[in-house]
Amino acid sequence: MTWNYTGKVLNLVFNTEFTIAIAAIMFYCGFRLRVKFQFLRRLSVPSGVAGGLVMALVVWLFYSPGIATVNFDYSMQTSLIAIFFTRIGLTGSVDALRKGGRTLVTYLLACWGLVIFQNILGIGLAVLFDIHPALGVMAGAVSMEGGHNLAVIFGPIAESMGVSGAAAVAMAAATFGVIAGGLLGAPVANWLIQYHNLDLVTNYDDLYKGYHEENEKEDVEIHDFIQTLGIIFAIMALGRWGAERLEAYIKSRPGWANFALPGYLGAMFLAVLFRNINDYFKLIKVHPRSMDLISRASVSLFLTISMMSLRIWELYSLALPLILILTAQTVSIVVITIFIVFPLMGGDYDSAIICSGFVGHGLGSASNAVSTMRSACENYNLLSYKALLIVPLCSAVLIDLVALPIILWFIQVFAS
User: Fold this and answer.
1) Three-state SS for 157?
2) Tens digits of per-residue pLDDT, 221-235?
3) pLDDT band for position 210 (50/70/90)?
4) What is the pTM of this model?
5) In what order do the strands lie in the sheet with 2-6?
6) Could you tell me which of 20, 237, 264, 394 has the fewest CB atoms within 10 Å of its CB?
């Protein structure tokens, strides 16, 4: 840690070790806040968001009156988020698509369509309100369907391209989305069930129940954990190397000088390839529980550090346009869910529960989707195995395989 003075203003700079230590402490604070305040659990607000926001407010309180500035070290961010995307790839199984069937494919297409729609709506309103169009992408699929995980990735990318305030807008929009999705998901399902007078019957197909039984949590042994960690880091290293080689080659072609291919995308697609080859040939066992713990730890630290670094003061001039854009995003997804997604899913009880998940992750996150679906199911004491297979698979894994390149393209086009 270092410090110096600019006039009467104290400038604090925390190195890697201090940054990680502070992030771990704030994550725990966020966890305790979730324990104490039920509404945080009800809305699926991540511990990293709650704790990191507390630190961001503290930093703002020192910055606003000109007492001190605080800067954290971001050198670990690239590796932490690469772990998360590698995990996404390792869960991208073709067998999972088979289990989900036609309903999963239809739902997945609807989610990919929502990515495009949210970006177009955000950009259009940003232009209307005379703010940078890339900020519309930040308040579009980046923070809505992408949630905090993508907001903390693409916000800094947009800023590196000259879009001032992109990171703050993305994180603020993602926080709004988590709250809106948590509040609206279950009520939308309840309204559909009651309005259409749906029969309270769910699909008990062994296909869906079997999937959940296969994915029961296992005990974690140290050798399994280290083996899984080694697989993840090997894929990360090779994926990044491949992405750098491919990016260099494409940039050398006429008209492609501004092309960018982040290393974590290379890791994610290599992980998908590895997963499906490994499923076929049974080369090595990848332990789901170990993989989940590694991923959750990395993304929790990443998310906490990113929230700690949120520059709240940059939102002042964007407050009204941002609120209007987010309100439009919220209303539009409810309309799309009721009039498009519900009929596409079949118009039955399972479809209504799936729709609650669509609102949950379309405005927030995969965990939000699961929370809203379980809440909707509890109202009728009837669990939908079908919904709890299709929505988490798509929202936590399959959406990003196409959504990430789409979002990156929108940013590159409209940030310039």
Assistant:
1) helix
2) 888 899 999 999 999
3) very low
4) 0.73
5) 2-6, 9-13, 68-71
6) 237
